[in-house]
Amino acid sequence: MHTENSIVIRAPLEKIFQTTANLLLWPSVLPHYRWVRVLKSGEDGLVVKMAARRGWLPIQWTSRFKVDGDARELHFQHLKAFTRGMNVKWTYTPTQDGVQVQISHELDRGSAFGRWFAKRVLGEMFVSPIATKTLASFKEYLEADVS
C-alpha cells in the first residue's frame, strides 16, 4: 500500500515544521485526535501511542517517531496490530504559494489478501481520510496563526 496526501500551507516553513513535529500539541490542534502518549524516549526517537477518530470510530496505534531536523522530515514506524510495519514520512517543500506538506504511507504485505486489505481497508478507509483531515486541520491552525 502506498498513499500520499499533501496540502499547501501559507506560513513560514520553520513554524510549520516545529508545530507538526510537536506531537503533544496534536490533540489540542487537531479535532479528530483524542490523545498522544509518550511510552518511551531514547536516542532512536520516541515510542508513542496515538488515538484519533475516523468519523465516529475511535482508533489507536503505536509508533516509533523520529524528527530529522536537517532533512526537515518526520518519520513514524508503526509497531503493532494491523498497521505494524507501516512507514510514514512527512516532507516539507517550499513553493511560491507556501509550503507543500506531504504525508506518505508505505505498507508492504506479502499475500494477495494482505495487499488488498492494506490498500482497500487501511489505506482507503483509514489512512488517507485521516491524513487528509490532519493536513487540513494543520493548515487552518497555522494560517490563522500567521502574523
If strands are numbered along the chain, what order do they take across the biggest sheet?
1-7-6-5-4-3-2
Structural class label:
alpha+beta
By DSSP, the count of extended strands is: 7
Shape verdict: globular
Low-confidence stretches: none
| Rg over alpha carbons | 15 Å
Q: Calculate the mean pLDDT score and round it.
A: 92
Sequence of secondary-structure elements: EHHEEEEEEH
Number of helices: 3
Query: What percent strand?
Result: 35-45%
Biggest pleated sheet:
7 strands, antiparallel
Give a structural overview.
Strands 1-7-6-5-4-3-2 form a 7-stranded antiparallel beta sheet. The protein is globular and about 45 Å long. The mean pLDDT is 92. The longest helix has 33 residues, at 112-144. 31% of the residues lie in helices and 44% in strands. It has 147 residues and is an alpha+beta fold. The N and C termini lie far apart (39 Å). It has 3 helices and 7 strands, in the order βααββββββα. The chain has helices at 13-21, 26-29, 112-144; strands spanning 2-9, 33-42, 45-54, 57-68, 73-78, 87-95, 98-106. A hairpin with a 2-residue loop joins strand 2 (33-42) and strand 3.
